[in-house]
Every structure is written in structure tokens, then in C-alpha cells.
Amino acid sequence: MDAGGSAGRAKLVRMQSYDERLTAPVSWWLIAAAAAVSLGLIALPLGTVPMLAALVGGGALAAAAVSAYGSARIRVVQGSLVAGEARIPVEALGQAHALDAREAAAWRSYRADPRAFMLLRAYIPTAVRVEVTDPEDPTPYVYLSTRHPERLARALKPAPPDGS
What pairs with residue 18 in β-bridges? Predict the structure, then answer.
């Protein structure tokens, strides 16, 4: 990217970096362990080896499912917002709004726009809603579940220019 040029292009801003993994809560891991034990108990009448195979196999599958669901990340790096598989240039984004649990529930239900990009995690009550300002993009906003809505909203704001 050319940092020199017109004053308009000199509006290159430093962004604060941000990185959050939306890991599943401990209760989900306990449910996965209970599912593995249940599979082991179901296989118990077949013998010790099938019971152990069901316990280990069921545990591995349940752990993989919980881990995969909890592997979504939200990052602000190198002038882009990366949310899950989506990558959006910060220049295409408008104002970021930190949402408390009540506001977040409204934006993921009756206030939701079906065209919006949403990275939802049911176990995270708070979120950030970021307006999409790109006229070529039909997405009105991005909704991101996050445990730190104020920090993420702050990271999406342009840093003040040097010397201020």
C-alpha cells in the first residue's frame, strides 16, 4: 500500500490489535464427557474392549465437536477485521457499537437484519455491532459475539494521528 500521496490517502491509521478465541465454556466440556461416559455404559454389555472403545471414541468425537465450535476467532490485524472465516477491510466498516447482554439479545432476534453477517455463540451474552459502509456490500452490519465488547469496539476505532 502506498503511504505517500494525497492528503486523503494519508489517512492511513494505526489500528489497535485485538485477538479473541470464542472458546466453549467448561459446562460444554462436562456435557461432552458425560456423553462419552454414556456411550461407554451403552457398550458395557458387549464387554470391556467395546466399552473402552466407545468411551474413547465417543470422548474423542465429543471433544472434537466442542473444540471445533469453540475455535472461532475474532481478530483486528493489518487493517482487517477477521471474524471466523470472514475478512473485512477496516476501511469498509463504520462505527462499532459495544452491546450489553440486553442489547445483544435484541440485535440477534427481533432487530436482526437477515442480510447481516453474524458470528454468534449462544454462551456469550455480549456482542459488538459494526456498521458496514461499503456501498458495494449489501451487508448492513456485522454482529460479533464477544466477551470483551468495549475492547473490540475500541480496537476497531482509528487510532489518533501521531502527535496527539
Answer: 76
